[in-house]
């Protein structure tokens, strides 16, 4: 649920990057943090890392250079990752609280397809535990690591992950080279702004 900060006249929108372990969620956030265009250094928060023994959750916020104002409020985006390993599922649920939009990052390697499918189902299950439905939340798919050998065809990944009543935007990516990173993020940002504008502020008032 987006949050209004009356003091700073900001609308804070939460985007969570979800997916299996080592799929590239962290790399996506690192690339966005390093390269996003903001009006001033203060318009981008520091990257915060909450590390476990073998995985970590990242977070930062930013206000784009051309930050859109909705009802007089500038839009600030908060980007989070979730830990990929199943043993940290409670942390995943905590990070999903208050989510407005989701980027599901899938690993394009053939031998990672089962992990992709299991992680996507885990996302659905965790949202249900929070009384949320994926169909009600703007989300996009990113098929990462397209530069590696033995990657599955995009059509096959679409069949596995985007074979629903309403298909969502999907993007091939090589996050280590910043390819597809901003295309993915810009789409979820546009979808969220479109949703809030269409709601006329009802969700955020």
Shape: globular
CATH superfamily placement: P-loop containing nucleotide triphosphate hydrolases
Q: Give me the strand/helix succession.
A: EEHEEEEHEHEHEH
Radius of gyration: 16 Å
Class of secondary structure makeup? alpha/beta
Number of helices: 5
**How much helix, percentage-wise, in residues?**
25-40%
CATH architecture: 3-Layer(aba) Sandwich
- Quick check: average pLDDT? 87
Contiguous uncertain segments of 5+ residues? 201-205
Stated plainly, the CATH topology is called Rossmann fold
CATH class type: Alpha Beta
Number of strands: 9
Major sheet: size, sense and barrel closure?
A: 9 strands, mixed
Domain tally: 1
Strand percent estimate: 15-25%
From the N-terminal CA to the C-terminal CA, the straight-line distance is 11 Å
Please characterize this protein's 3D structure:
By secondary structure, the protein is an alpha/beta fold. It has a single domain (3-199), classed as P-loop containing nucleotide triphosphate hydrolases (Rossmann fold), CATH 3.40.50. The protein is built from 5 helices and 9 strands, in the order ββαββββαβαβαβα. Strands 1, 2, 3, 4, 5, 6, 7, 8 and 9 form a 9-stranded mixed sheet that branches. Strand 3 (48-51) and strand 4 form a beta hairpin. It is globular and about 50 Å long. The chain starts with a strand and ends in a 6-residue tail after the last helix.
């Amino acid at each position: 649920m987006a949050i209004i900060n009356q003091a700073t006249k900001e609308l804070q929108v939460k985007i969570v990057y979800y997916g299996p372990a080592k799929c590239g969620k962290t790399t996506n956030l690192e690339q966005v943090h390093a390269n996003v265009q903001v009006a001033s250094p203060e318009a981008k928060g520091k990257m915060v890392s909450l590390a476990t023994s073998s995985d970590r959750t990242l977070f930062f916020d930013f206000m784009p250079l051309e930050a859109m104002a909705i009802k007089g409020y500038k839009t600030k985006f908060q980007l989070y990752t979730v830990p990929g390993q199943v043993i940290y599922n409670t942390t995943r649920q905590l990070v999903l609280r208050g989510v407005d939009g989701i980027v599901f990052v899938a690993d394009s390697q053939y031998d990672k397809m089962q992990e992709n499918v299991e992680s996507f189902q885990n996302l659905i299950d965790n949202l249900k535990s929070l009384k949320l439905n994926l169909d009600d939340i703007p989300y996009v798919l990113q098929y990462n690591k397209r530069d590696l050998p033995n990657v599955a065809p995009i059509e096959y990944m679409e069949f596995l992950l985007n074979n629903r009543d309403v298909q969502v935007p999907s993007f091939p990516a090589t996050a280590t080279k910043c390819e597809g990173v901003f295309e993915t993020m810009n789409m979820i940002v546009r979808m969220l702004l479109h949703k809030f504008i269409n709601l006329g502020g009802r969700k955020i008032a």
